[in-house]
Amino acid sequence: MLKGVLKQFFQKSSIFFWILLIVGSVSWSLTMVKSGMLYPSGMGFWGPNGHDGIWHIALSESLARGSFDMPTFSGARLQNYHIGFDLLLAGINRLTNIPISTLYFQILPPLLAIAIGTLTYLFVKKLSSSTSSALWAMFFVYFGGSLGFIFNKGESAFWSQQAISTLINPPFALSLVLILCGLLLLLNKKYIFAAIVFGVLIEIKAYAGLLVLGSLLTAGVWRIVKERKFDLMFTFVAAFIISLIIFIPLNKNSGSLLVFQPFWFLETMMGLSDRIGWQRFYSAMTNYKLGGFWWKWIPAYTIAFVIFCVGNLGTRIVKDIWLFKKLKALKSLTWIDIFIFSMIGAGILVPTFFLQKGTPWNTIQFFYYSIFFSSILAGVAISHIKSKLALMLIVLVTIPTTILTLKDVYLPPRPPAKISNVELDALGFLRNQPSGIVLTYPFDEFKAKEAINNPPRPLYFYDSTSYVSAFSAKSTYLEDQVNLDITGYDWKERRDKVLNFISTKDEPIAKGFLTENNIKYLYLVKGAGPLVDEELRLGSGQLGLTKIFENNEVNIYLVN
Fold it and tell me: Which residues contact 164 (CB under 8 A, 6 or more apart)?
């Protein structure tokens, strides 16, 4: 049966489908496939891959070892993080022995891009019975962009990442695959399977799980009131129970990560130079609010909100043509309309009013789903436009974000970050040693700023990353302060202990630190530590260390 369905699909798919699928998937994949490969300067990394990609590799390596500990904060259990994608990566690695880095950067991205494009086409075709709508939806899903290029700014000038950057957030990309699969199952009345798909979604991407459960509940209530049918509510209850079962064990304290702080994205969008940076508008709106002049600050924040939405959506704002038509005829609304409207609305409202502790900008990821479903509705709306000139104009205004982001960020031949070939030798050596906790130098923000004008920067001067854990397949005592913030670990005290160990001349204290924390290896990059004249204040003999590796860049010690 499946073979027959696939054969019919391939036979009926138009040439425009294949063009969109190939060009869109290649464009998306270009943001990933160059990273993690070897170049004359070493292993290169473009864009956020120099941090986010390294984190997923470190976590997947840890899961592949059968550990549910935090790989960059030894001795602590993993908490407040959705590990579904990383479990998948670890599982494929165990089954195939393909290196996790290769899976992450070169193999899974094209597969995810193809899956999202194909499922978008199938979903919209099922939803609208229109090939034109499905093709236009694919176009917006692959190439939709913000209006940041008008202001000579990047894709996130209005804060949200755009379509071209979908794959640099693999859990987000995988969540789109599951959402589309779940919706297709619902449209085909496969409620139990849809509940399973939606239930596991929260462990793939927590933001997606929350939005889908809320939207499913809203659509279920609508269906009960309007049609006296309980199938969607059954799906919601089952998905909710599955979500609780798989989410609570690793995320018991996640509810406290969101804090009420309205309009932070609007204010920073206007105030920060790497966003829109309209300082006069920012000063006016915030002063009106502080002064309690509600008759001034309400219009000012409303204008900022409209700029936030229109700027991020770009040409996808054409969806509102279709949206207004739908809302005029309330009686014709279906449960799938309510589901999509809820996804878009909640995705906009949550980051407008709430932030995530430690890393406030992370909450913008709710908005990614508003953009995705706006792309689908834009495809449905634009398929009814007959003017070829209007269609051409929409296309021309849509694609600059994709072109400029690729050109400026992902296609330059020289990567902004690297692991040198010499350091890769050291990491490879450490990978082949028996398991044990590795101590590294803490990230030095000041040295990183000094190295910013000399790309490609080594990862230890690029950002606080988990690269030692990722490429040595070992747990580290302290790495990647960014993700430690996101997941709610108190890492600052541990950092102080490391700095004290490095600088102390008190032998019992230094030895006690190594013993108490079960440190087995010291991975010390020459010139990256806090001391200018030497790597440690006490010598290796005093600390009971044996040097087991040395090259031009790295010393590795074994703690006896």
Answer: 27, 28, 31, 143, 145, 155, 401, 402, 405, 406
Give the whole-angstrom CA distance, residue 311 versus residue 255. Answer: 30
**398 close to 143: Cβ distance less than 8 angstroms:** yes
Task: Assign 196 a pLDDT band (cuts: 50, 70, 90).
Answer: very high
Q: Is the pLDDT of residue 126 over 50?
A: yes
Q: What is the distance between the terminal CA atoms of the chain, rounded to a whole angstrom?
A: 63
Nearby residues of 154 by Cβ (< 8 Å), 6 or more positions away: 148, 274, 404, 405, 408, 409
Q: How confident is the model at residue 333 (pLDDT cuts 50, 70, 90)?
A: confident
Which of helix, strand or coil describes residue 31?
coil
Burial zone of 332 (CB within 10 Å; 0-12 exposed, 13-18 middle, 19+ buried)? exposed
Token readout for 102 is: 């290769």
Which H or E element spans position 416? none
- Across residues 145-151, what is the average pLDDT? 91
Q: Which helix (H) or strand (E) holds 274?
A: none
DSSP per residue, 275-303: S---HHHHHHHHHHHHHT-HHHHHHHHHH
Confidence of residue 8 (pLDDT cuts 50, 70, 90): low
Q: In sequence order, what are the residues at sequence separation of 6 or more whose Cβ sits closer than 8 angstroms to the Cβ of residue 8?
A: none
331 CB contacts (<8 Å, ≥6 apart)? none
pLDDT digits (tens, 9 = 90+) for 213-269: 999 999 999 999 988 999 999 999 999 999 999 888 776 665 566 788 899 999 999
Distance CA 36, CA 49 (A): 9
Asked if pLDDT for residue 10 goes beyond 60, the answer is: no
* Sign of the torsion formed by the C-alpha atoms of 151, 157, 160 and 163: positive
Sorted by sequence, the CB contacts under 8 Å of residue 370 that are 6+ apart come out as: 343, 344, 345, 346, 347, 348
Phi/psi at 68 (nearest 5 deg)? Answer: -110, 25
Two structure tokens written together for 472? 């040595």
For residues 88 and 97, the answer to whether their CB atoms sit within 8 Å is no
